[in-house]
Amino acid sequence: MLTRLKSIGPGALVAAAFIGPGTVTVATVAGANFGYALLWVLIFATIATVILQEMAARLGVITQKGLGETLSEVLDDSVWKWPLFGLMIVALYLGNAAYEGGNLSGAALGVQAIAEHKESVYRFAVASISTIAALLIWLGSYRQLEKILLGLVVLMALAFVATFLIVKPDIGALGRGLLIPRIPSGGLMTVIALIGTTVVPYNLFLHASAVKSRWSGPGDLASARSDTMISIGLGGLITILIVSTAAASIFGTGLQIASAGDMATQFEPLFGSFSKYLLGVAFIAAGLSSAITAPLATAYAMSEILGFKGGATSRKFRLIGLTVLLAGTALALTGIKPITIIVFAQMANGLLLPIIASFLLFAMNRKALLGENANGVMANILGGTVLVIATGLGIRMIATAIGIL
Predict the structure, then answer these.
(1) Residue 377 maps to a domain
(2) Signed CA dihedral, 281, 283, 288, 289: sign only
(3) Least enclosed by CB within 10 Å: which of 161, 267, 276, 386?
């Protein structure tokens, strides 16, 4: 076990990317509004994330190429190359722009919590955090803050673990929520948001690119798989604890989650009046960290798809990242309630997941590329099941929105 823990690497980056303010917000809303009823969604989402991220890691380890670069080569002679790439580019930009809006809104909510819920600081906070993220992306100095920000996110996660033990959740209801799939009235959007905040489409590109610098060749697959399962498993467990804590401390009280201060009430049994400061600092850290990660992941994917050279140091790479950051900033400043933006962003990711997952499955079945490490029957069944369920929920969401269901 100790050897496996020492191999933790890129998987932790993926887990940290989805344990951001969006995850905390959506998980808190799920627990506050529906109690333990939607915990089963997180079991599915965590397993789905492990399945898809293992494929992305395997692709990166064996081919030493990112997902975008691989697809560009595989589809090079196909007449469908640019129509399909156009679809993927639109999906990436829409999903990550929405996700970025949620990241910035979440960080600004953290500032609001510390500033005693003053509405006037929200726009200033969004603009300030966006500017900091832009400078870090452009100057390439974001790695200097990475460990500090990740440490603060870990602190928030530990606070949820400790609070979960204090609030004494209903174990029977928790068990039923984990094992019995059902969607309460009005819960479909939250279901898709929980999936979208866990199985993050851009992480498939980020993971395939990240493993290249850590591992290479079939001999490293065991380490890459352990890294993926342990890191993402722990991330999924933390999200389950957040929903359970909110269910135990907020569900049934009538409190409507509208701010980080409302979410901080979960911590009050353990941290009292310091709760809002703890959650505020953690939201700022998680928001800023994710506000940098999402544009970088988009830049990696787009650069690979379009064949741009120079990597993360090139002007084109940085400009792509900044356009995503700008779109997210615009969304965060629209005047829409921050909680609404965050939930919408996670839902958008859930709706776009089938598109990106389809491209991944296509690449993973290329024996000429992966040889004996291409997907087998079981991997395709698991991946196909995730794809069918995610697609079905997305279609149901759209059908409900237009009045068919």
Answers:
(1) no
(2) positive
(3) 161
In a domain, 373, yes or no: no
CA-to-CA dists, residue 282 to 121, 136, 250, 303, 357, angstroms:
17, 19, 20, 31, 31
State how far the Cα of 405 lies from the Cα of 397, in Å rounded to an integer.
9
Structure token pair of residue 404? 């068919």
Distance in angstroms (rounded) separating the CA atoms of residues 222 and 2: 14
Q: What is the pTM of this model?
A: 0.86
Residue 347 has φ and ψ, to the nearest 5°, of: -65, -40
| Chain CA centroid to CA 44, Å | 15
Please state, in angstroms and rounded to a whole number, the distance separating the CA atoms of residues 281 and 297. Answer: 24
pLDDT of residue 404: 64
Strand locations in 55-201 (E): none
Largest CA distance in the chain: 62
pLDDT of residue 2: 45
Identify the pLDDT of residue 1.
47
368 domain-assigned: no
Specify the number of domains making up the chain.
1
Position 264 scores a pLDDT of 79
In sequence order, what are the residues at sequence separation of 6 or more whose Cβ sits closer than 8 angstroms to the Cβ of residue 367?
374
Angle formed by the axes of helices 275-306 and 121-139, nearest 10°: 40
Quote the CA–CA distance of 71 and 37 in Å, as a whole number: 39
Question: How far apart (Å, rounded) are the C-alpha atoms in residues 229 and 8?
Answer: 10
Residues 322 and 97: their CA atoms lie apart, in Å, by: 11
Indicate whether 376 belongs to any domain: no
Beta-carbon neighbour count of residue 274 at 10 Å? 12
Single-letter amino acid code for the residue at 234:
L
Whichever domain contains 251, its CATH number is 1.20.1740.10
Position 63: which residue type? T
Regions in the chain scoring below 70 on pLDDT: 1-8, 117-118, 141-153, 156, 401-405
**Quick one: tokens of 278?**
């703890």
pLDDT tens for 1-38 read 445 545 567 887 788 777 778 888 889 899 999 999 99
